[in-house]
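Checklist before submission:
- one chain only
- standard amino acids only
- sequence pasted in full

Submission:
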Amino acid sequence: MAEKTYIFIIIALAIIFTGCASLQQTEFQNGDILFQSLNSPQCEAIKIATKSKYSHCGLINIIDGQVYVLEGIQPVKLTPVVEWINRGIDKHYVAKRIPDLNDRMKPEDMNRVVDVGAGYLGKNYDFYFGWSDSLIYCSELVWKVYRDAWDIELCSLKKLGDFDLTHPVVRAKAEERYGDSLPLDEPVVAPADLFNSELLVELKNIKLPQD
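Returned file contents:
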């Protein structure tokens, strides 16, 4: 009888601790990358060309305890994270990070993405997806901030011609932007390329600021 009671206690404790572990929430940290899809003709073309459900991304910046997403829209700005999430289709998003980044950096180094990102604030959106810093688009912004703040290249760059430009929706958007002068050799990085980076893992059970 005592042995059965002992086994029951062990099982009960296992269930309790497993439940507690499942309730633990992940808090955002500087450098987390968020992905979402927006409802626009350009975003639809991006999803088709890159074969991805995600067309937009941004970078977590924590400033004075407030959580923002640094994003390359028109113009580059800091958007409160809940507002950013709510803007996406069905409010769906995925957050990713380099899993051991916080462990191998000093706190002041983790803040470098905020300092580097501030240098891009107010820059105009690059509708032509060029690689210069004068104009910038969302995934280019994330890639360059990681490179300049932490000397990390999240993924290899591609060329515009590497994407599927044959679909009628994509072709129409490309002709609208470039006419007959499509810059197929222009270096580019798409949200899908960042999403598929082998350096990143997906975050689960995220605690949002209003929780």
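Reviewer check: The chain has a mean pLDDT of 89.
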